[in-house]
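Worked example 2:
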Amino acid sequence: MSIAQLRAFHSVATAGGFSQAAREIAISQPTLSGQVRQLEQLSGTTLFERRQRGVELTAEGEALFEVTRRLFEAEAEARTLLKDDMNRLGGHLRVVADGAFHSVPIIRHLNGKRPRLTFSLAVANSERVIAHLLEYRADVGVTACLAADPRLHLEPLLESRMGAFVSRDHQWTGRDHLVMKDLQDQPFVMRERGSRTRAVFEENLAQHDVGLGQIMEVSTQEGVREAAAAGFGIGISADIEFGHDSRLHFLPILDADILLIEYVTCLAERRRLPLVRDFFESAADLYGSISPRAARSPAGPEAA
């Protein structure tokens, strides 16, 4: 077998299909398919189950994927470590976060250290942030999901309290705070399940034995804001993430005792890569609540 065949297999396994893999590594699909087919023929093993939409790894394919993952991660790490000082002023970092509020300042600070830095930022719910990392679709993440997974390296960033927000014409705009019992039977607009903000809010509801009224689910926090501003219900946000929106009135919930904690995270095997390490150090520089030298290990199944 050749390294090209192994790389072709790894690309298809990572992308979940031949077409997507061919686009990502910029070769023709027939060439890619041919390399994978040759690998299967040489080994006498079926590595993929071909489906109408994409592929699924067989048991043998899963075992090989574990090997190629380590192989190409080691290759990438070696390449990074061997770059000269000029290249270390840049690099490309794939960031995934459950919001832009915390992640963009970290990237901006990192950009001061690495003026040639390029990056991509994907925003997803806390559950999907972890999935992106485990699927090798991101290098670092910012999330409120403390995932009990030994493959991940996590460090606490900061903590915040829960608050509600309502449209400016809501009856509560004259108030400066709420308590949990105020929320009984009220209509709400919330993120889909998988959002850690929603999960922490529901933990507070259960703690205070509060039941909500009708719930409208919206897939993005921006959508929640728009729906709340239009009067469809009350929205929920961490206090430090709310920002300013003249259409909305924010109300801290004084007895919401379960806090929302944000973490910076990456795959444990990638934490020593210079660019990833610099991201963690930039987070520590900005927020001061984490140490890039002392990892916080997940203590239990707190993932949303």
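The longest helix spans residues 59-81. Confidence is low (pLDDT under 50) at residues 290-304.
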